[in-house]
Amino acid sequence: MFAIVDYDTGNTRNLQKAFAYLQVPTTLTADPAVLAQADAVILPGVGAFAAAMTALQDRQLVPVLQQLAQAGKPMLGICLGMQLLFERSSEYGDHAGLGLLQGQVTAIPSDLGVKVPQMGWNENELQQPDSSFASIDGAYTYFVHSYYAVSPVEQIVATVQHGVAIPSIVQRQNVVGMQFHPEKSGQVGLQQLASFKEMVSANDFSSN
Amino acid sequence: MLAKRIIPCLDVADGHVKKGVNFVHLTDVGDPVAIAAAYQQQGADELVFLDISATNEQRKTMAALVEQVSAQVFMPLTIGGGISSVADMQRLLKAGADKVAINSAAVADPALIQAGAEKFGNQCIVVAIDAAWDATAQQYRVYTHGGRQATDLDAIAWAKQAVALGAGELLVTSMDRDGTKAGFDLSLYQALGAAVKVPIIASGGAGGLADFVAVFQQSPVDGALAASVFHYGELTISDVKQALRQKAVVVR
User: What are the catalytic residues (chain B) (predicted)?
Assistant: First the structure.
């Protein structure tokens, strides 16, 4: 069972449908006991960084997620959920994140001839050939975002070019983030979720 | 670099796709899930479902259709047709739509654009514009109600206003070209591209591969939408993408 964190931000239905399609049972929950028992914790999210962190704080979930990740619980943040894994964000002010990945979240520069938000399909370049997500190399995934993660290279599994190099998959041991929407990225997106599921089943996060 | 998007448009009434689709061997030629899956297989980048029915009852059917399609087909879905309130938008987005397209209701009440953008984010709100060239006024005039009702609005000015209010994308149909297969209205999209910075989807006039190449090479649109050329199997999405790739247009 994968637990999808229920904190009232964004549409989790499509993510649940994607896992259902992959025959991975999910439950939508904000209950720390259920999160602790899950095989993996999925952190979704759309909208603004600060509002999402406030919503997590209101449910006393910030220390819960931090302790679970530090204890080795597999965790996957998606889109804004990935950004929340980082230390800070400069979206409308300066806000602390969960601090499970090193680095911060900042605006995509709009003076480089690209449209912001980045909205559409972009081509991934694999940065870590031994990654369990290697199937993403050269494949397109679907993005909708205005901010991106500035991360140490050792956490960056794959990137896309949108004015700057934007990390599309990040990983630090058991903590994984996807900036794109795997539930909206066709077979390639489903494959990335399946790869995460295999890592969880094998309890093997050694590739990064 | 972002890929240019190729977007089939499906007209829906009573939960079924109208105008049939005959490139797949379907027992029910109007089955939305099967048609969406076939388009995903062909490489469509996004799907637009347009509710051509007029009643509230049928709009609820549309939400059920979105639920079903999004459980089997994992790509962006835009729903348009008859959306006239934030509650309409919420029902469709909750059912699994990624974007909602508003047209006549936005012209009647531009504040609806802002209300939707504030609640769901700009990226969810597509403003659809039906426009035709008015030779007397020397401007593109906006039409509503499926093209039946002329307004006083200049399409370029309306596009700017819609974006200022929070539209995250524009889906602009040339009524002069729609159904003609004479190619996209390049000057319309050139004018729009100079006026706004949000993504623009061109619609109306697709007839052959060269039309897709022309609209991407000669105007700054982000996507091209078509219906009949795809439904009747005259072109496949992969044909279009191959032709674009040969002309160095970036596609998925």
Answer: 11, 130
**ipTM entry:** 0.91
Taken in order of first residue, the domains within chain A and their CATH numbers are 2-202 (3.40.50.880)
Residue A182 CA to residue B126 CA, distance in Å, equals 22
By Cβ distance, the residue of B122, B197, B252 closest to A121 is: B252
DSSP B74-100: -S-EEEESS--SHHHHHHHHHHT-SEE
Q: Is B159 among the domain residues?
A: yes
Q: Is B130 a catalytic residue?
A: yes
Top residue of A14, A21, A178 to mutate, by most chain B CBs within 10 Å, is A14
Q: A55-60: long-range contacts at Cβ-Cβ below 8 A with a sequence spacing of 24 or more? A: A55/A7, A55/A8, A55/A9, A56/A5, A56/A7, A56/A84, A56/A98, A58/A7, A59/A7, A59/A30, A60/A32
Cβ contacts from A onto B, under 8 A: 76
Distance CA A191, CA B6 (A): 22
User: Residue B142's pLDDT is what?
Assistant: 98
pLDDT digits (tens, 9 = 90+) for A88-117: 999 989 999 999 999 999 999 988 889 888
